[in-house]
Amino acid sequence: MNSTAISPVKGNRKLLRKLEEQKVDVQSCYQCGRCSSGCPVAEFFDLKTMEVVRLAAYGMEEPLLASNTIWLCAACDTCATRCPNDINITRLMDILRELALRKGVVPAQPRIPQFHLSFLESVKRWGRTYEIGMLGAYKIRSGDLMGDMKLGMSMFSKGKLSLFPHSIDGKSDIKEIFEGKGKEYER
Question: What is the predicted pLDDT for the residue at 113?
Answer without folding.
Answer: 83
